[in-house]
Amino acid sequence: MPFHVKICGLDRIEAVDAAIEAGARWTGFVFYPPSPRNLSPEEAALLTARVTQPVDAVGLFVDPSDDELAAVLDKNLLDMIQLHGQETPERVAEVKALTELPVMKAIKLAEPKDMDEAAAYFNVADQLLFDAKAPDDMDGALPGGNALSFDWTMLAAADIPLPWMLAGGLTPENVAKAVAVTGAEAVDVSSGVEAEPGVKDLAKIAAFMDAARAS
User: Fold this and answer.
1) Position 153 pLDDT exceeds 80
2) Which one of 37, 114, 160, 161 counts the least CB within 10 Å of its CB?
3) Domain at 4-213: CATH code
4) Is 126 a catalytic residue?
5) Which of 2-11, 136-145, 178-187, 194-203 has the lowest mean pLDDT?
6) 54 upstream amide cis, omega within 30 of 0
7) 131 is catalytic
8) Is a pLDDT exceeding 80 seen at residue 215?
9) Of residues 8, 11, 56, 188, which has the active-site annotation?
10) Residue 194 backbone zone (phi > 0: left; psi -120 to 50: alpha; other: beta)
11) Is residue 103 within 8 Å of 126, Cβ to Cβ?
């Protein structure tokens, strides 16, 4: 099976171009105001317009309203919706129907019992993303992009009947080990290729892609 990478939280034209040129399969754009990677629909439109097949543009939302989704899709041609909040399986189905796009649902892990949540989405999501759950006492924690990892062995023998990707604290230095432990065929990175929160580092994007391909 081919190995694929998603570069998320892309913030400017140079970063989008760098991700595409390095061979990313997915480019991710964040629509969540508390995030330092947040984009307005208009800002994102300048970036998503640069993404063409076979690369997909993914919009990341956190518990979005129908109006929020519509505002983004009115100005951006997305290939997939990523839901990174507390969306129920029923809400995932609603978003799929509303947008007529495939939906990737984030499942946040801190301990083995958190894996139980994934099963509820097996028959409704098109893809899953496993990310680290932030501790309750973490200051300024976001739904994702916190540079936190989790115990990868939780995924080592998991039976997941739909495509999935690994996220959470991945860097050029640890991605190969993460893939070896989990057997992931796709990974997602955001903070691990940044110079500072919300600012992508073009050299780190290239380094991550090289390390991921070598995994």
Assistant:
1) yes
2) 161
3) 3.20.20.70
4) no
5) 136-145
6) yes
7) yes
8) no
9) 8
10) beta
11) yes
